Amino acid sequence: MKEPILISEWDSDSFHKQVLELEGKGYAARPESYRITPVMDPETGEIVHQYSVEMRMLETEDAGES
Fold first, then answer.
1. Residue 5 CB: number of other CB atoms within 10 A?
2. Cα(first)–Cα(last) distance of the chain, in Å?
3. Which of 21, 43, 51, 65 is 20 to 30 A (C-alpha) from 30?
4. How many Å apart are CA 30 and CA 3, to the nearest integer?
5. How confident is the model at residue 1 (pLDDT cuts 50, 70, 90)?
6. Is pLDDT of 62 > 50?
7. Which pLDDT tens digit goes with each residue over 16-55?
8. pLDDT given at position 63
9. Is the Cβ–Cβ distance between 26 and 53 less than 8 Å?
10. Three-class SS of residue 8?
11. pLDDT at position 60, please?
12. Triad 32, 38, 41: Cα angle to 5°
C-alpha cells in the first residue's frame, strides 16, 4: 500500500487542481482530513486560508492476487 499524500496549499485553485490530478491517478481524498485553516498575515493583518487534505491510493479489486 502506498503512503498517503498530504496536499496543502494557500491558493484554492492550485489546491483543487492538485486534488483533481491525483484523483485522475487513482487517489481518493479522505473527507474527514479536509481542513481550511484561517491564518492572519502579521505584516498586513490580512486573513488567508490554507487548504489541506490527505489523499490515499484506492485499493484495486485484484490487489494481492498473482
1. 13
2. 16
3. 65
4. 13
5. low
6. no
7. 999 999 999 999 999 999 999 999 988 999 999 999 999 9
8. 47
9. no
10. strand
11. 66
12. 150
Give 3-state DSSP helix, strand, coil % of the chain, rounded to 5: 25, 40, 40
Which runs of E-coded beta strand occur in 1-66? 5-9, 27-29, 35-40, 47-57
The whole-model pTM stands at 0.77
Instruction: Report the half-sphere exposure of 42 (CA within 13 A, side-chain side).
Output: 0
Amino acid at 7: I
Place of cell 481518493: 28
